[in-house]
What we know:
alpha/beta; Rossmann fold; 14 strands; about 30% helix; about 25% strand; binds ribose-5-phosphate
Amino acid sequence: MPLNNGLKIFTGSSNPALTAAVCEYLGVSLGRAEIDKFPDGEKVIRVEDDVRGKDCFVVQSTCRPVDEHLVELLIYLDCLRRASAKRITAVIPYFGYARQDRKDEGRVPITAKLAANIITTAGASRVLTIDLHAQQLQGFFDIPVDHLTGELVLSKYFKDKKIDKLTVVSPDVGNMKTASKYASHLGGDLAIVHKRRVSGSEVQAREIIGEVDGRNVLMCDDIIATAGTVCSAAKLVKERGAEKIYVGATHGVFAGEALNRLGDAPIDEVVVTDTIPQNGESSKLHNIKVLTVSAMLGEAIKRIHKNESVSSLFEDF
Ligand code: R5P
């Protein structure tokens, strides 16, 4: 089936550069739409291409400003649904609110579930996303979810670096399974940091299980938000004798004190992907490297459009 036959890709305003790169990978032109604001700030979207009976994909990360990008996605979905699109896939490279996924104290919401509900209600037939913080978040959507991982892109980058004396360090216990996959893929040892979260932005790395003395360390995580997790882990492994320290994470949220902390931490390189655009303050970090997920997303979109397997993308990892 030729890709141009019935495939339409639209972009929200969160990450147009990534959408453009996806379109380039697929060899299709970007769907035409106008995103505007009424004088009172209300968003208005008008899709200018005919989408009746078409297989539509809307690319929108719900990154900062989170609520504005989320609402924009909802309006886009509603617009395409009312314009009789045959199938609408919400492509959400970074899904904000993912970490609010449980009621761990009284009288708090489960906003990840709320966000999943409203995306479905607005008109999404399926979701394509990357590293949802926890695999089980897929179950928050009652529509098909294709869940990709930035590990494919990050691990290739670090493999090509051929880091010797490598120890992969999980900066917290929750990330151990991912770290262990990296260790076996890259051929390194494994270590785990025991962390204690003091508050939303303060983290204490307390102990390391495993050897880092004289080793080059790769720390991998799904998300760097305030950078408390990776920076306190980096300080601890440095104190314990680590040589080079690399950090790899799919989503560079970089909130609050993150950039100052990363600038001061004993980290040689911070590698993130472009699920969230990094063309603002973060691009000034001297040791940041941004990898693109565009080919992975493009390939997944192609396979969804052609009703082919998406999971086989991960067979090598
Ligand atoms: C924790 O479960 C996550 O995998 C990340 O380690 C965490 O969300 C990072 O947050 P921060 O950068 O604020 O420490």
